[in-house]
Amino acid sequence: MPTPFEELKTRALKRWGEFTSDEKAWIRIGGGTSGQASGADLVFDSFKSTVDSSGANANVSMVGAMGLMYMEPQVDILMPDGVRVFYGNVEPSEAQEIVTQHVNEGKPLLDRAFAYSGGDGTTTGSLPSLDSLPTISFQERIATRNFGETDPHDLLQYIARGGYEALNRALTEMTPEEIVDEVKASGLRGRGGAAFPAGVKWGFLAPSTAPIKYVLCNCEEGDPGAFNDKGIIENDPHTLIEGLIINGYATRSTHGYVFIRTGHNLPIEAARKAIQDAYDVGLLGKNILGSDFSFEMEVSLTGDSYVAGEETALMEAIEGKRATPRFKPPFPAAAGLWQKPTNINNVKTLAYVPEIVRNGSGWFKDIGTETTSGTAIVCLSGHITYPGMYEIPMGMTIRDVLEKIGGGVSEGERIKVLQAGGPLNGLLGEDAFDTMIDFDAMSEAGASIGSGGIIVGNETTNVVDLLRNLIAFNQFESCGKCFPCRLGNTHMLEILDRMCQNKAKSSDLALIERVGVSMKAGSLCGHGQLGFNPIASALKYFGDEIEACLAGDLPTPGVFGDGTMILPTRTRP
Amino acid sequence: MSDGTTFKIDGREVVAKPGQTILQAAMDQEIYIPYLCYFPKMKPQGSCRACMVEVDSNGRKMTVASCTTPPMPDAEVITNSEEIQDLRKNIIELLMAEHPHGCLTCHRIELCGPQDICQRHVTVTDRCTICPKNERCELKDTVRMVELDLRTPLNYHRRDLPIHADDPFYDRDYNLCIVCSRCVRVCDEVRFDTALTLTSRSGVALVGTSQGTSLLESGCEFCGACIDVCPTGALTERTYKWEKAVSEVTTICTNCPVGCQMVAEVNKFGKVVRFKGDLAGAANNGQACMTGKFGYEYTNHNSRLRRPYVREGGILRKATWEEALNRISLGLGGRSPDEMAVLTAPRGSNEDQFVAAKFAETVLRTPNIDSGLNINDALLSQLEKRIGAGAATNSIWDLEKSRSLMVVAGNPTEEQNVLAVPAKKAIREGAKLVVIDSRETEFTRYAAEWLRPKPGSEPLLVAGISRAILDESLEDKQYVDSRLNNVTELKQSLWSFDLKKVARHTGIEESQIRRAARIFAESDAGAILVGNDGLDDTAATQVVDAVVDLAAITGNIGGDASGVFPLFNGANTLGARDMGARPAENGLGVTKIISGMKDNNIKAALIMADGLSGHSAVLEGLTSGLEQLEFLAVSAVFDSEITAHADVVLPAATYAEQTSTVTNLERRVQLLRITAESREEVRTGWETICLIAEAMGGSGFDYSSSSEIFSEISSTFTNYANLSHTQLQSGGIQWPTADGDNLGTPTLFASSDELITVIPLDYDEFANSVSDNQLIFAPGRVLNQPERDVEVRKPEEMNYINREQFVQIHPADGDAAGVAEGDAVYVKHVDGHTLAHGKVVFESPQPGLIGVTTLFGELATRMHDLEIPDWSPHMPNLGYSNVILELVTDEQKSETAAD
């Protein structure tokens, strides 16, 4: 008799065959928030109605975004002969032509396409293969392996591509302790910013014999310039769900929460659908896949709060309270959500887990650097030629990422400043561009991989204005609980305002440093402790510019505005 | 582990008790670490960061908040290194940039008055000298302790927020708030009201009510706990707002039998200017209530009686004590003992009560003496008969550990407020509550089961619960076997309480009775709070029997966090009873004395009126009785409807002008202390009675001090043996006290050798107590009704709740009275005066039961506006009445609309 998983796999392969048969073409439109923002919805509708009305022999699916945001809306067509051709920046009006010529007549529009895959290249002329594009070739896609390949709302497509094999293996062949050991051995470090070894963290929770234990997944992701957590959930939710179930099994937990910030609509929708689908086929609930392991999961939403992403504030938020951080100890593994033992991981951390369990810890350990195994999912935005979401092996230098993948800035210009890892982390100047992307190397450079966002600024960027913008964000998002953060951010912002208006005194530099140092030493949680980082690192890399600003040499503020100041509105009651 | 953690603070070896944080351990050793958000007896918060210290534990150095961090064994804590001092200064400097502090750098701050001209150009609104808390500001003290230099380069902004001065009793000025959240936390985690909350976040985070409403709508019980914890001038009592205190005196609140220990702040004129709960108070743990916190100031009032008066030609004229005493000895002398009566003051001390009892017995020789608010006599007497004390078996704060609670025919949140605080805590922490009451009260809102029976059927219901417990074998069998006498008889008698019959008589479904029984019997420790609201003497006796039997079979007498707590009135009613100020054999109690006056059986009386209200519904007919008297002598603090009928009025001292003892409902004997200078010619109760007694030729009244009287009390009554004023200086003691210890007896029947006698219950008698065929009005009151809209109006700048009431009626009564849902009706007392009016809703569960639920905010504004200096005796309780329903006519409607 086939096991429950074997039955599922059979169904999944049958479904996959419906799309990839040698009889029908498969038109895939990259969706996700970035795709939809550039019009993927309209493109999808257009292709769908064209295929329906013309009776073309093709399936049309909205799949996850591949991450090549400069190409969006992106459409690709897999023909029955196995050759797949990719079109970028597709307009809805082009659907008719593409369907008629490519699907019906078998002639891809080579001058519109940007890459192909499959086949021997004979039918695609001089088109480069997808794998040869620098935006793909430098990637090592683990957590993002299904991006652009599968429909995120189709559980069976995920299973067809090897999904839930890891869970099945965990439940049938491994003890919880073995999984914790495996994750420890893989060297997987938390991707939420603190880079704490995930397996060690799981090991804190696992021994507790409490009848109710929680594993939480954090997708607050409020950092400007970061979209990889949301990306994973909206483009391939099951890789997270599977990771969280394995996390639950490994720590013998009973409940899981996927915590998503209100307003991340596509991820919320995708996570809810994925959880429901998993319940429907017995991947969640009582006796998962016929094993003894039972596990419940649900989505919980924050209010509109950045600090809700702090692990203990997140627990307060799930409990329905103000999202303000708790003091530690007690630590979550002892008393977390509803005072029960709790483990919390970032989306990215959990998204690696299925592949680690499927392929073994050694495989993962071999990727990346000595101290940071695996990959980094980098979100490139700002003044960069090829913005997008790229999964690169740890150890690439920042310069390689910017120039080889990102294509640098426009010709004749120079990258001046990077804002890496979210607004609580540092600015980087050119001196730091040869730093490896690796937790330790980055932290030495005064920055952090953090959330993985890299915002690029060219020479027109005014560092003081950029700083003011970051501190305004931090100030606005302070939860207001501890005094140094609530008040310190306000004062730092006021000083930066003065600087931007050429009203600052030379003594203000010492003042802002004094405030920043008190915040760092005195604040309750990371939001305040790290709040001075942008300024500290700016002083390191752009000290001259800041001093020049204080001396009255003020370039027009304006990367983030048109030169008019937006004054803070929430500094004082 | 249980020995605590040994570590070092600034080189000094310190042992922290288990569970203590570094800050708490330091405070125990009197090592100063500044703090602003921490407050004793509340959970740490960790938000002000003023208490940061360095910790070196096994070579690991950390900078941590000492209020939230437990000490690590052998750690070195440094509280005063340069770095730490700088950090603290920087943080407090940030804080001062949003708090007015103009005077903090000025050496004249102690000398400068609010109206003085300032030559330093400090804006008036930024001056400390105009802050109500100028002399007692924790922020100012902290700034000075950390030696902060306030010539800060940081921008100072005044918030310019409006001051909330439109709610009763206290002002909120959030310009002075530092967002330490103490007030929010005390309201939530100590009082369980959550009337206050933090609003918004980041730089604009502040404190307020959750929807920005008035306090009247927010669920505030005006207990003032938030004021007591506020470190700045943001929250202040309105009366004496700017008054400076020169001394603090620990004393006892005399408004109800909880007997909260209070700290009275006294100004240089000897006036009591503030009253706050004493954290060291065993009965209240730092808490107080609306009447305690705000109802103290009558002692300072200008309209106090300052000299004796005698009636001449129909009017009271000033007189000397001698003259007044002569008139009294003439008025009371030469009468038959049976036609005289003495009512002692509800607030009267044990010494007063003892002397009064001695006076009635040896001088007047009358058996008619009672405490003026001994209206719960049947309840307390029966309890005394059953467990040997008309008082609680356990301590009040035992309740916080109870796992289940039952409240029967009482409204503790209003009448014994601070008793409800630990009960609410237990409920918040998971204890299940059963309420047996026909009225909607604050406790019914927290009840797991609210049994809302026909009025008068409460005893039957309690007995029914006992029956259900036996049915399901839920009794504590081991306890029943080893501790109880007479169980077989009780069990047999309970077989006649057939639950179907009980259900029919009480109007409560059998299934609900069973659920209540399970809740109470299945928990480890259950306490019962029992009152006699709406019960006549017979029913009050029955409810005590039923409650004691229930507590006994569930093993809840003699253990921790369990027991029986009587809910009664009068601050020192228990003390009065203990002192023998109660009717002797064949004597009349207070209610019979009043009816005796009306029937002309009582012709002359001495009334000690402190704490008595002539209008109080619980003493119905008192004033009309007084009219009939031939002679009335009154010792009173104020002119009142009682002195209006007096032939002689003597000026009485208040709680603030005497050293004497009172006994609270948990049997705690506590010491009142002199807080204010006594005014000329004003006498305490015992002094007054001694003078009268001597004027009438009595002997044995030549006491020189109250402590001398107390020695006599101590040698007269065994419960008061081994106690003295000196001993009580360091805190109250629960009687009885064994020789030589100061421990007293927190729990009665604590020894497993003591047997408890249960008694059989008589079904027919219980069922007879239930009255049928009457409309009974059971008014309710709650703190908050979030499900109903509330409109607040603001005539003359103050907030008033304005909303239409819903009159809950049973459909059957509606049909009988010819009213339909939505009709406007009057609820009128059978004697004709209107008790309530509003819109009919068919929501009453019982035929005959009419309910109207008002908001506590309405009561608070009413009390606040009352033009009676001593308003707390005038707090209306939720009394039952026999009523009729009357439709509001169209004419009356248009009249109301014209208003």
Could you explain the architecture of this structure?
The complex is a heterodimer of chains A (573) and B (899). Chain A has 573 residues and is α/β, with parallel strands linked by helices. Chain A has four domains: 4-137, Glutaredoxin (3-Layer(aba) Sandwich); 155-364, NADH-ubiquinone oxidoreductase 51kDa subunit (Rossmann fold, 3-Layer(aba) Sandwich); 375-458, Roll (Ubiquitin-like (UB roll)), CATH 3.10.20.600; 463-550, NADH-ubiquinone oxidoreductase 51kDa subunit, iron-sulphur binding domain (de novo design (two linked rop proteins), Up-down Bundle), CATH 1.20.1440. Helices cover 41% and strands 13% of the residues of chain A. Chain A has 22 helices and 14 strands. Chain A has helices spanning 4-20, 32-37, 40-54, 95-104, 134-137, 155-160, 165-173, 176-186, 198-205, 228-235, 237-250, 265-280, 311-318, 347-359, 361-365, 398-405, 439-444, 463-477, 483-500, 508-522, 526-529, 533-550; strands at residues 25-30, 58-63, 75-78, 84-87, 113-117, 214-219, 255-260, 296-301, 342-346, 375-382, 388-393, 415-420, 427-429, 453-458. In chain A, α10 (228-235) crosses α11 (237-250) and α18 packs across α22 (533-550). Chain A is globular, with a radius of gyration of 24 Å. Chain B is an alpha/beta fold. Among the domains of chain B are: 309-374 and 575-734, 3-Layer(aba) Sandwich (Rossmann fold); 377-566, Dimethylsulfoxide Reductase, domain 2 (3-Layer(aba) Sandwich); 773-898, Barwin-like endoglucanases (Beta Barrel), CATH 2.40.40. Helices cover 29% and strands 19% of the residues of chain B. Chain B is built from 29 helices and 37 strands. Chain B has a seven-stranded mixed sheet, with helices on both faces. Chain B has a six-stranded mixed sheet with strand order 33-35-34-37-30-36. Chain B has a five-stranded mixed sheet with strand order 2-1-5-3-4, sandwiched between helices. In chain B, β26 and β27 form a beta hairpin. In chain B, α9 (350-364) packs parallel to α23 (685-695) and α14 crosses α18 (510-522). The longest helix of chain B has 17 residues, at 537-553. The radius of gyration of chain B is 29 Å and the shape is globular. Chain B starts with a strand and ends with a helix. The mean pLDDT of chain B is 93. Classes of the chains: A alpha/beta (573), B alpha/beta (899). The A-B interface holds A 305, 307, 322, 327, 329, 475-484, 486-491, 494, 507-508, 511, 514-515, 517-518, 521-524, 568, 570-573 and B 44, 46-50, 52, 63, 65, 68-70, 83, 87, 90-91, 94-95, 97-98, 153-155, 157, 159, 161, 174, 178-179, 181, 198, 200-206.
